[in-house]
Amino acid sequence: MSAAADDPAPKPFEPAQLASPLLRRFHAYWDSKRGARSMPSFADIDPLEFPWALGNVTLVDVLYDPLRFRYRLVGGAHVTRLGTDMTGKLVDEFASPTLRQILSRTYTEAVQAAAPVHRTRWEVVAGVNHHYEALLLPLGAAPPQVDMLAICAEYIDRKSLR
């Protein structure tokens, strides 16, 4: 898989795009926490309030000057799929340059948008099946600056869609 098969140009997010009930529920949680603001802060969310999603949630710290991304928490479903726990590590530490590029580009897009970003992927990258639907949600104490991304992803087996 080459990086040439990149994600299409981003479209404005619409909750109706979400096929996964898990992602719809996680978005509703995030939306309830933001109130009238463009995004909630990390202090507004409480993982004890979404135990139904914890294995599918990854929290990514956004570091500036230069823009980089560090994994604060990686859900068990992601660790199992990737075969490595990136908690405490930078995206730059992934062994696969293709995976680093895809993740960095997607996270950068979410930070620049300062709004939800929805992705589906049906590819094999660095020998790992990346068949999933994901929702990247910004968190920030002083919007529009994004301090963290809360990412909820559900891995999908194509056979289950038949």
List the helices and strands and how they pair.
Blueprint: H1 21-34, E1 57-63, E2 68-74, H2 76-82, H3 97-113, E3 117-125, E4 128-139, E5 148-155
List its traits.
162 residues, alpha+beta, Beta-Lactamase, 5 strands, disordered N terminus, disordered C terminus
Walkthrough of the structure:
This protein has 162 residues and is an alpha+beta fold. The chain has a single domain (16-157), classed as 2-Layer Sandwich (Beta-Lactamase). The chain contains three helices and five strands; from the N terminus they run αββααβββ. A hairpin with a 4-residue loop joins strand 1 and strand 2. Residues 1-6 and 158-162 have low confidence and may be disordered.
Number of strands: 5
Spatially, the strands of the biggest sheet line up as 2-1-5-4-3
Mean residue pLDDT: 86
Strand content: 25-35%
Say which CATH homologous superfamily is assigned. Answer: PAS domain
Largest sheet: 5 strands, antiparallel
Outline: globular
Number of domains: 1
Please report the number of helical segments: 3
In a few lines, what is going on in this structure?
With 162 residues, this protein is of the alpha+beta class. The protein has helices at residues 21-34, 76-82, 97-113, and strands at residues 57-63, 68-74, 117-125, 128-139, 148-155. It has a single domain, classed as PAS domain (Beta-Lactamase), CATH 3.30.450.20.
